[in-house]
Specification:
single chain; alpha+beta; eight-stranded mixed β-sheet; 5 helices; 28% helix; globular
Length: 176
């Protein structure tokens, strides 16, 4: 898969991207802004994960690549429900690239949502965002996602529970 939108390209994860992906998975700043949890990932675990990507038909994981900066992060669809035509959206921009707040996450979101609706024939994309992660919520709103509700005290981080805000977008709602 190579899918270009404006000045970014979404492409398959290559073995040469594994160090960037592992860096993001092990980055405490990224982990603090995402739901769930992650444990430190070793090179061996990363290789095994990469080997399993090809056989997983319920996920689309892509590298965000720019002409000027190369690979800068990931956008992905997980828990793809092919019968009901929906999936969960996730994204990460590498902190080491110093490119947050420059619009790349919004463009990558639009690109993957557009791909999901036009190429995968999905009908709805949803995202679960920590309530305090305002930049991710603003990016979703810019793309046309709507706030569906709040899951109270759903995620435990740094010694306390936090709410998750649920956002979704249906085919035809994407803001170009």
């Amino acid at each position: 898969m190579n899918y270009t939108y404006k000045d970014i390209t979404l492409r398959a994860i290559e073995e040469s991207d594994l160090e960037l992906v592992r860096e993001m998975m092990n980055d405490p700043e990224i982990e603090s802004m995402t739901g769930g949890y992650s444990f430190p990932i070793s090179e061996y675990q990363q290789k095994k994960w990469f080997e399993n990507l090809l056989t997983n038909n319920q996920e689309v994981r892509t590298i965000i690549e720019t002409k000027d900066f190369g690979a800068i992060g990931l956008v992905m669809l997980t828990d793809i429900d092919w019968k009901n035509r929906n999936a969960q959206f996730h994204s990460k921009i590498a902190t080491s690239k110093n490119l947050r707040g420059k619009g790349y996450g919004t463009k990558a979101t639009k690109a993957l949502v557009k791909y999901a609706f036009e190429q995968l024939n999905l009908n709805l994309i949803y995202s679960e965002i920590l309530k305090y992660n305002l930049p991710s919520q603003k990016a979703k709103e810019k793309c046309g996602f709507r706030k569906d509700g709040v899951l109270r005290n759903r995620i435990y981080k740094n010694g306390k529970y936090h709410d998750l805000v649920i956002w979704s977008i249906q085919k035809g709602e994407l803001i170009e």
